[in-house]
Structure formats: C-alpha cells, structure tokens
Design brief:
Layout (H helix, E strand, L loop, with lengths): L10 H23 L4 E8 L4 E7 L4 E6 L13 H14 L7 E7 L5 H10 L3 E7 L17
Parallel strand pairs: 1-4, 4-5
Antiparallel strand pairs: 1-2, 2-3
Helix pairs in contact: 2-3
Length: 149
C-alpha cells in the first residue's frame, strides 16, 4: 500500500473535460435526431416465415422485424395478416428517424409478399420502386436419370 495521491484540478483541465463531454453529447443527439430521407425495405417471404428489414441507402440496417418475433407461430407466420403486422411494428420503430422514401426489394414466394408492399403504402411510406430479387435457376443441375422398374 503506497501513498495516496491527491490530484488538484486546474480550471483549464475542467474546461477541457467539459468540452469533450459537450461534443460527445452533441454527436449523440445529432445522430439520433438525424432523419433519413431515403431507404430500402427488404421483404423475404418464405413459406414458413416473413422477414422485413429496413436499411438506409448505403445498406446499414435501421430496423427489422419478423412474424416469429411478433408471436405468430407455425403456419400463421407466412400469412398476409402477419406481414401487415410486421410493417405496422416497423412503422413504430421508424417514426422518429426512419426513411420516408423507400425502395422495396422482394425475395421469395410466400404469402406475405404482396401484403407487406401494400402495408408500406398504407402506412404512409412513399414507395419509389419495387424490385423482385428472387433467385431463378438458369438451367441448374443435371436432372436425375429415369427410374427403371
């Protein structure tokens, strides 16, 4: 156990520390108060679930939601009703900082794909474009040989 050192703070040091805190607070408030103008909405509609995520125009995730996270279970996760509820919860998350103009990218062939797009329009988003990015095989792998009986 050594001697305890008592530091005395000079007014210049106190001013420097308060400036650092002020700039950190200013950065935090400016980033949270920054409202996005444009964004992208990605809808993945499978036969088992519907996943919707919203990003800014650079691709950084802003908010996401799934039917399973809302309490839907089993085959009810892929219904159009679940997709509309997903978009409603995303609207609540995006109220303060979310984008108003969105480009929609749809992936998959589940039941919630059309309902999610309609819900985005009904919730007040300005849908700039709708793009289907579902992967389609171009000839794919070789078919199995026919069965001999």
């Amino acid at each position: 156990m050594g001697k305890k050192q008592v530091k005395t703070e000079t007014p210049a040091m106190a001013l420097k520390d308060s400036e650092v805190v002020d700039t950190a607070v200013a950065k935090a408030t400016s980033s949270s108060a920054k409202k996005l103008q444009k964004g992208r909405a990605y809808i993945k509609a499978t036969y088992n679930n519907t996943i919707v995520s919203v990003t800014d125009d650079r691709g950084n995730l802003v908010a996401w939601s799934t039917a399973g996270s809302l309490g839907f279970a089993g085959p009810k996760k892929a219904t159009p009703f679940a997709a509309s509820k997903i978009v409603a919860t995303l609207t609540e998350k995006l109220k303060k900082s979310g984008p108003t103009d969105i480009s929609v990218f749809v992936n998959g062939s589940g039941g919630g794909r059309d309902s999610a797009i309609r819900s985005f329009i009904n919730q007040g988003f300005n849908v700039m474009s709708i793009t289907d990015v579902t992967p389609i095989p171009h000839n794919g792998v070789k078919a199995p040989k026919p069965r001999r009986i």
